[in-house]
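BACKBONE GEOMETRY TOKENS
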Amino acid sequence: MIKINKSEKPQILKENDKKWTAEYLIALKKTVPVPKHIKYRYQNSEIKDALEKETYGKCAYCESKFNHVAFGDIEHILPKNKNARPDLYVEWSNLTIACEVCNRTNKKDYYKPSDPLINPIEDEPNKFLMSCGPFIYHIPGSRKGEVTRIILDLNRTELIERRKEKIENLLPLIDKWKNETNLTLKKLLYSQIKKEAEPDKEFSFVIDSYLKQIGFYN
């Protein structure tokens, strides 16, 4: 998980967020289910495009790139149901993108103010989480990191396998960089490896941590 730098609010929300929220709150108070055209107004292409751009097409939680196999979900960091934060129904700072597993299977409507999850927009995830190879751990003593890791199941088998594959694919390049004596080529290799830890890359949190652990940045 990496910190998300929030982009400018889409025009459609600038024009409608207060109205949509008011109508949603009124609908929640009624005895009948909230009509779909009100409940899912945030599922708008302009909103989703902006969210995907700021997350680099990755899940805000597990950093999986999902567009090649799924659409991805517009995610409410704090749930919009009446028992959580319906007032943040279309609050731009409460919206992000998540894969279906993190959103629908693991996090669901988790809302416990006394034990909150890491907020990738407000928090610095690396203050609560660390990685060792393909595994994600909470920083010792970090309750928020521990709860987040468990609830989101950040070490599910599929993620570990994909992270391990990313590291192993990078190893030959690292070995070549380490043994290279030509300074020009060594710098080119360094730049190529460093790109794999940039925010737009899948599992950049794990790759960046791995490169730090092997002394790559020294």
About this structure: The longest strand covers residues 73-76. Residues 128 and 140 are 8 Å apart (CA to CA). The longest helix spans residues 157-179.
